[in-house]
Write a structure and sequence with these properties.
Layout lengths: L12 H15 L5 H17 L5 H16 L3 E5 L1 H6 L1 H11 L2 E4 L6 H13 L5 E2 L5 E2 L5 H4 E2 L9 E5 L3 H9 L3 E5 L6 H5 L2 E3 L3 H14 L5 H10 L2 H14 L2 H7 L1
Parallel strand pairs: 1-2, 1-6, 2-3, 6-7, 7-8
Antiparallel strand pairs: 4-5
Helix pairs in contact: 1-2, 3-10, 3-11, 3-12, 5-10
The structure holds adenosine-5'-triphosphate (ATP) and magnesium ion.
EC number: 6.3.2.36
GO molecular function: acid-amino acid ligase activity; ATP binding
Pathway: Cofactor biosynthesis; coenzyme A biosynthesis
Length: 255
C-alpha cells in the first residue's frame, strides 16, 4: 500500500501514514533499522497521550518558537526518523525561524547523511549542513560526536527532535539551549532539554512553525517573556499526569 492509498477516514490514519513513511525511509536508505524501533516506542506513548497535542505541549511549542526567534545561530538537527517523517515540515520551520538544517546521525554513515541531505533538498531546503563533519561535541566518542564547526558546534539554540539521551546531555554541557521533541516524558533527552515538547514530531514541528509565524511581529521583550515564563518541569509533569491519569474511554471521547 502506498501512502496515497491509505483511506483518510480510517480511524488510525495518522498512525498508518507515520508507519508508512518510516518504512519508506528505511527502504530509501535514510532511516536506520534502529529508527523503526524508536518509532514503535514513540507510538506507544502517543497512544497514551491520546494522539493529540496536550495544552502543555502547545505552550512548549510556543516557548520553542520564541526561543528560536530570539536565537543568534539556531540549528535544527535532522536524523533519519525526522527526515522520513516530516521533511517538508522541518524545512518550513527552518524558514520560519531562519535556522540552519544539519544532518546529525546517531548511527552515522556518509552515505546515509548524503541521502538525507538530498531528501531535504528535494523538499525545498536550500542549504543542508552536516556533511563537513569538521566540528565535535566534546565528551562523546568520535562517531557520535561529529558535527559541523559552523553548524551545531557554533549554534546557541539547537532543536534536537528524537535525540539520544547521551548526546542531549553532551550538548547541554556545551551550554546549548536545547529544544527536544519526544513523546516520552521520562526519556533522558526531554528531561535534559530547556524546552521539552512532549508531542509527536508530526504535530509538533508544524505547531512550532505556526507559533513562530504568529509571533513574527512580537518584540524581543515579548519573546523573552514567553520563553522565560515556560517551566520545563511543569511541562514534563503535565505530560506524565496525562499518561498516568487518562482512561482509554476518555481518550476515545477526545477524538
Ligand atoms: P534515552 O533515555 O537514552 O533518551 P530512549 O528511550 O529515548 O532513551 P531512543 O530509542 O534512543 O531511546 O529514543 C527514541 C525516542 O524517540 C523515544 O523516547 C520515543 O518516544 C521518541 N519518538 C519516536 N518517534 C517519535 C515521534 N514520531 N515523535 C516524537 N517522539 C518520538
Ligand atoms: Mg530519548
Amino acid at each position: 500500500m502506498t501512502e496515497t492509498e491509505i483511506p483518510e477516514d480510517h480511524p488510525r490514519y495518522a498512525s498508518l501514514v507515520t508507519r508508512h513513511r518510516i518504512e519508506a525511509g528505511v527502504e530509501q536508505g535514510i532511516t536506520s533499522k534502529q529508527g523503526l524501533i524508536a518509532q514503535g516506542r514513540g507510538e506507544a506513548f502517543d497512544y497514551l497521550l491520546g494522539e493529540r497535542t496536550i495544552p502543555s505541549a502547545d505552550d512548549a511549542a510556543r516557548a520553542a518558537a520564541a526561543t528560536l526567534l530570539l536565537a543568534d545561530r539556531p540549528v535544527i538537527s535532522v536524523n533519519g526518523n525526522v527526515a522520513a517523517l516530516a521533511p517538508s515540515e522541518t524545512v518550513d520551520l527552518a524558514g520560519a525561524v531562519d535556522a540552519d538544517l544539519e544532518v546529525n546521525l546517531f548511527n552515522h554513515t556518509d552515505e546515509r547523511a548524503r541521502r538525507i541531505a538530498d531528501h531535504l533538498r528535494d523538499h525545498g531546503a536550500s542549504e543542508v549542513k552536516g556533511l563537513a563533519g569538521d566540528g565535535e561535541i566534546p565528551g562523546l566518542d568520535h562517531a557520535r560526536g561529529v558535527v559541523d564547526a559552523d553548524g551545531i558546534e557554533a549554534a546557541d539554540v539547537v532543536v534536537v527532535p528524537l535525540e539520544d539521551g547521551d548526546r542531549a546531555a553532551a550538548l547541554d554541557a556545551m551550554g546549548k539551549t536545547e529544544i527536544v521533541v519526544d513523546l516520552n516524558p521520562g526519556s533522558r533527552s526531554p528531561r535534559t532539554a530547556d524546552v521539552p515538547i512532549i508531542d509527536n514530531l508530526l504535530r509538533a514541528v508544524p505547531n512550532v512553525t505556526a507559533h513562530a509565524r504568529d509571533l513574527a511581529d512580537a518584540t524581543p521583550a515579548e519573546l523573552a517573556g514567553i520563553a522565560s515564563s515556560f517551566d520545563s518541569e511543569n511541562a514534563l509533569d503535565a505530560a506524565e499526569e496525562t499518561i498516568r491519569g487518562g482512561s482509554f474511554e476518555s481518550r476515545d471521547d477526545a477524538e
